[in-house]
Specification:
Helix content is about 35%, strand content about 25%. With about 325 residues, it is α/β, with parallel strands linked by helices. It has one domain: 3-Layer(aba) Sandwich (UDP-N-acetylmuramoyl-L-alanine:D-glutamate ligase). It is globular.
């Protein structure tokens, strides 16, 4: 089959207003970083010379056109972007603590991203994908929820590899139970799951990550690969391998100077999806899995040394250099 795109992603495209020091008057300065997990993932794919396309909605306003231009400049196909003249482009405000860990607040009542409809979906782009990637943010409001479920189920029927990242943002949900229900929808439809440690606890109630990963693997037999990202503790990776699972925990790169963790998980999964798309296989040897995850950790670590994510993605050479410097430890 002919594929135009290694990865297609659908969801939010927004502005991340990131702290950038103080003005002469002592007022906080904010940098307008293009953001949103789906395009961050795709930017990693294209930085590695992969082909990627984005489906989503922005406002027919200054920021909507600014974002489209910045996404296109990363080599991402933007023919799936729709402009809404009745809603503003979604805005996110990033708050950083002293260690660069981030939290968010949003101007999205509604934001244009949440207004994507079924009729906005260009199915020919889905037809041309190897992998379809999504998160729960688009599932947090209608009509974007229905549009996302259409795309997920259409891509599944067409035999695409489905990748899911919960990317849980509590402020975007009116009820915690509703968020869990929609995240379970993602679990039940994906082959690849990238999930952060706090999301594992939220969804399983288990603080032991290995136990939680095993539980998810049993409860959702459709999932072939789980990447449990653990911040400074690295990543626990599970690959089903046709019933002969490999589970390893990989150190990350704590020697880098972290200033902003925004997008680290997106860059991690973007690297992995690129590798999987080129292989078109979810089967890995232990050595192959280690090679991929070490480099994905390197990419994620590098993005934390920069402000923003989408326009700051590290190159293959930078990733290989950092990965070569690490002598990682592994545990099973």
């Amino acid at each position: 089959m002919e594929y135009s795109f290694d990865v297609v992603s659908q969801g939010e495209l927004l502005v991340d207003f990131t702290p950038y020091g103080l003005s002469n008057q002592g007022n906080m300065l904010l940098e307008t970083n293009p953001g949103g997990g789906p395009c961050n993932v795709l930017a990693m794919v294209t930085k590695l010379s992969g082909h990627a396309a984005f489906i989503g909605k922005v406002g027919d306003d200054f920021y909507g056109h600014y974002l489209s231009g910045r996404v296109s400049a990363q080599g991402i196909d933007i023919s799936g972007i729709v402009y809404d003249s009745h809603a503003f482009t979604t805005l996110a405000f990033v708050h950083l603590n002293e260690e660069g860990e981030r939290s968010f607040s949003f101007a999205r009542k509604p934001g244009a991203d949440s207004l994507l409809t079924r009729s906005d979906i260009p199915v020919h782009i889905l037809d041309s994908a190897k992998i379809f990637h999504f998160s729960s943010i688009a599932l947090s409001a209608e009509p974007a929820r229905a549009a996302m479920k259409f795309s997920v189920e259409y891509a599944s029927e067409k035999g695409k590899i489905i990748s899911f990242d919960p990317n849980y943002r509590p402020l975007l949900w009116t009820r915690e139970q509703e968020a869990k229900e929609q995240i379970r929808y993602g679990f039940s439809h994906c082959h690849i799951l990238k999930i952060a440690e706090e999301e594992i606890i939220f969804m399983t109630g288990l603080a032991d990550v290995r136990m939680a990963v095993d539980k998810i693997a049993v409860d959702y037999p459709n999932i072939e690969i789980i990447f449990a990202t653990l911040g400074k503790k690295g990543c626990l990776s599970y690959v089903k391998n046709a019933g002969e699972p490999i589970v390893i925990q990989t150190d990350t790169f704590t020697q880098v100077e972290t200033i902003d963790t925004t997008g680290a998980g997106d860059i991690f999964i973007g690297y992995c999806l690129y590798v999987i798309a080129k292989r078109l296989s979810l089967i890995f040897s232990e050595a192959e899995l280690k090679e991929m995850v070490v480099h994905a950790n390197a990419a994620a670590s590098l993005i934390t040394t920069r402000k923003g994510a989408l326009c700051a993605v590290p190159t293959r050479e930078e990733i290989d250099r950092l990965a070569g410097e690490l002598r990682p430890s592994f545990s099973k």
